[in-house]
Amino acid sequence: MKLFVMRHGQAEAYAASDEQRVLTEEGREEVARVAQSLIGVKLDGILCSPYQRARETAAIVAGVHGGGLTPKVVDGFTPDSAPREAVGQLPEEGVWLLVSHMPLVSRLTGLLVDSHEHAGPGFNTGMITELDMDYPAAGMAWLKKTFRP
């Protein structure tokens, strides 16, 4: 299995709620730039947080990728979701992109690679890590590559 873990693009600082924050123009541009890294990757699907900025990010990547994918919103991929519970919502095979937030993207990557939630890398906005694993579980992944806008 291959999992690309992505933090959403730069978002507006304020909105009626955190869930409603939208991408800035710079955020949309950085996502479009880094999405170029995934052209040629045969994605089986795109998963994303229900928060607006993650949904916007996933839609931009889907458009740039051109694979005809419609992002699937998953409630368990919000900023404060528990990484162990998030692992349980990942597909067991295939090639997937997950678009979410800090601290989940870092904690999930740390759990999958090093078995420790706090061992994950820091994620700038728009950053993607490529993980290879036999199946999603603690300590089962290898961090192959990092893509930055």
TrEMBL record:
InterPro entries: His_Pase_superF_clade-1, His_PPase_superfam, SixA. SUPFAM superfamilies: Phosphoglycerate mutase-like. SMART domains: PGAM. GO terms for cellular component: cytoplasm. Its EC number is 3.1.3.-. The keyword GTP-binding does not apply. GO terms for molecular function: protein histidine phosphatase activity. Keywords: Hydrolase. It comes from the Bacteria. The keyword Hydrolase applies. This is Phosphohistidine phosphatase SixA. It comes from Parendozoicomonas haliclonae. The lineage of its organism: Bacteria, Pseudomonadati, Pseudomonadota, Gammaproteobacteria, Oceanospirillales.
